[in-house]
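Regression test case RT-17, inverse folding.

Input:
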């Protein structure tokens, strides 16, 4: 599965801790991330990560494009709800795209843990259904 990792500045340490804790699960998937988040997670875990621009410089939109193309399966976006973000319209657009295209979205470590543990158990069949036009055939 394709997984996006995004974290606002005050949540980057949470994302790094999460990626270290779930490194073995994340290693089985293709990872994408916005600029600094991807760099810091890669440095901490050694995981290969396709890095886009920083969020405010278009990285959120680049990940959004993958969502719109049905090429993203899960988004882990650790948001800082207490700090105003200069690129808030991009953040809102990304969240809206997750809703439009039925992409699971975790905005905090607790939800991310539930999603990643279930991903590891193989309970994300609905993504195969979405990719196969409403059938559960994986051929």
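Golden output:
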């Amino acid at each position: 599965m394709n997984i996006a990792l995004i974290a606002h500045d005050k949540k980057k340490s949470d994302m790094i801790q999460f990626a270290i804790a779930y490194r073995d699960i994340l290693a089985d998937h293709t990872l994408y991330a916005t600029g600094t988040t991807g760099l810091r997670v890669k440095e901490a875990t050694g995981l290969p990560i396709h890095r886009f621009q920083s969020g405010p410089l278009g990285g959120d939109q680049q990940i959004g494009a993958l969502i719109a193309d049905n090429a993203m399966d899960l988004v882990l976006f650790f948001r800082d709800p207490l700090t105003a973000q200069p690129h808030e319209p991009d953040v809102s657009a990304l969240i809206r795209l997750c809703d439009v295209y039925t992409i699971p979205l975790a905005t905090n470590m607790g939800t991310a843990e539930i999603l990643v543990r279930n991903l590891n158990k193989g309970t994300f069949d609905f993504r195969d259904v979405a990719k196969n036009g409403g059938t559960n055939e994986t051929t």
